Protein 1
Amino acid sequence: MTPVPPRRNADLGTRTVVGVALIALAAAALWFGTFLFWLLVTLGALAMIHEWGGLHGADAGQRKLMQYALMVPLAILSPLAAGPGFLALGLIFGAFFFLAVVTRSGALGAGAIYVGLPVLALLYLRGHENGLMLAFWAMALVWACDIGAYFAGRAIGGPKLMPEVSPNKTWAGLIGGVIAATGFALLLTQWGLPMMLALATPLLAVLAQAGDLYESQLKRRAGVKDSGALLPGHGGVLDRLDGLVPVAPVAALLVVVQGL
């Protein structure tokens, strides 16, 4: 009798196809200008805050309220409005206080910051003089880290990173992810990425893995496997972008500090 292939191989195929499609969509939005990029990250942000609410026990009405509250800073972030700046930053924190008071939950209010800050950071990077490269670097290092961690973890295995949070992650995967992200960033220096940012990439790769672990902890606490079901093979939008959440603000801060 011919053995049945493991289910995970089919899942890997779906995950790969969807992952490549998402990367292509993000790259196209980056390439064709700030408005399309803003539109893409806005749609992603609304899905993310909806899933954040689900992970923290929000009902359907509260999730809609969270989306409405976040729409205010998202609208201001549009290149047709004020764009990324202190006004949008203030409105993100304003959404946090509003939601925390109305829902009587600091955790639900924190979703506005968890989702809003990465959006602000990515749009700031894209609006920079060298914005196409900077925004691509911030996102691509996370992709490279995920790919490197996956294949290094499968090929090498070894001690678990945090088995009580994510039983599949290994130290080998972490190291493989850092190496992959750093190598990719060094490659990007040939096309205009400042060397200082490439040298900071290992730190950002570790942050990407930390963001993944943090969301895994949230899912474990909520008793769910995925944050949502929007993306076949990946789960929710939060599942796909959890590593980018801490990376984008720090990447933007590095650009500001370096005066690039």
Protein 2
Amino acid sequence: MIYIVHSKRVNMPKTKPMVSIENVVASATVNQTVNLNQITQNFPDVEYHPDQFPGLVFRLKSPKTATLIFSSGKMVCTGAKSEEQAIKAVKNVVIKLKKGNIPIENEPIIEIQNIVASASLGGKIHLELAARVLPRSMYEPEQFPGLIHRMLDPKTVILLFASGKLVCTGAKKEAEVYRAVSNLHTLLEEKNLMIYEGN
């Protein structure tokens, strides 16, 4: 027990970043054409305005998501808060369609396309200095208040703000989000770019 306390004091950053998954985007296909007009007749709650947009919007209350369905059988699900939720949402939509007499022969093939997460690093950041020190970074405060950092591994784009808050996009797995945030936090600390209260 003493060892754990000691290792935390010596090796760990001053604060652990608080990460929150905001939106998981999944794409899917059932590899067949789907009759959107038939779905509209059988499910009066769906939104379908083909003169404005070719996709139909199928909303679920649990998990709270919106799935775009196209006549090609392709789908895009947004609004999930985890990979598991996104996959569950698409499967639930397909189950509901089948139960609603929409002829779907195949199981959906689902792929996570993008995870958007927010995080707080627990301290403020020298953005101008960070822009000079961090590779693949862009900071133009007159156009956008955040620094844009492109990380190669995991391949993500992080919008970093002076408050220590950030938005991470481009990850395809939740583990990649946590790794990207941790990598950036470690790098900022190594370069003395974090400003903590009381320092």
